[in-house]
Amino acid sequence: MAFRLIYNVGRRHEKERVYRHMEPEYDDNEFRDRFRFTKNSLQFITDLIEPNLCRPTLRSHAIPAFTQVQLALRYFASGSPMRVIGDTMGYHISSVSRAVRDVSSALCNISQDFIQWPETQQQKNKIRDGFYDVAHFPGVVGTIDGTHVRIQAPSGDNEYAFVNRKGFHSINVQGVCDHTGKFLNVVANWPGSCHDSFIFKTSNLGRYMETRHRGYDMDGVLLGDSGYPCKRYIVTPYLRPNSESQVRYNKAHVKTRAIVERCFGWWKRRFNILHGEIRTKPEKAVKIITACAVLHNIALKLREQMEDDNQEVNDVPVIRNHVDERRQVREHITRTFFS
Q1: Do the strands 183-191 and 170-177 form a parallel or antiparallel pair, or are they unpaired?
Q2: What spatial distance separates the first Cα and last Cα of the chain, rounded to whole Å?
Q3: What are phi and psi of 271, to 5 degrees?
Q4: DSSP three-state, residue 129
């Protein structure tokens, strides 16, 4: 009897786990403003990753997969602290943190399905034609650049490695996009102090281009700014153009390469977490960045509305010395198409 009395008293004082769904019903425009996707698109994303979100629990209040995706996308879209997201949507901060962690990991697991380098000649030709229509620059299969995503200062002995040349802590993200602004390659594994050219050289794409590139006619070229080395598979602007054809080449180069800068602008405008500061450990920030890149490509696939980015593009040359023979492709393009 005494045991039963103690047990019943404990039951009376046990705190019941209750979720408070405080968000009102939104119309389609309001829903998209808050989550950056329509309800149908959010359901599409949920269907893709739901098997990775349904975990066994002894409780009767497991958060549905659709709601987990909502929590994560609200965090990505607003850039607000997780506590604010939880208070707004009626969930504890720990639930928001788990949803962001699990949704980010699940999206990273399917990244190869949505961020793909063109393999077939038909795919490459379609991209070439799309880039050529921009400024008549031939043979381009991708534009490459790096962008910094601010993170909170990590603890540990390697904290200094995350400080970039502008003086704040960041992840330096390499992105390659096609003529539509879709990511073909994303590398978000390096701290802010790493240079763009180093990230490309050590990436899978860089090694692939170095060892398997079959030449300009077959595999085309990447367009990079003057922070990259000029090679047979990546062409850069002339630092000191000394002819009219080189001037025309530079103008077409800058206009075409601007697509990757606009792509970064669209990406960061859609997901404000990339504009502010990701207040997590670097390992988790890397997954959040990659997840947002996957979502960017999904948004293009589903024809979600894209915010326009009218930023001006300026190519600031960085003087470097490269072997002249690596510039042969650039010289060929200049003589053949811009003379």
Answers
A1: antiparallel
A2: 99
A3: -120, 95
A4: helix
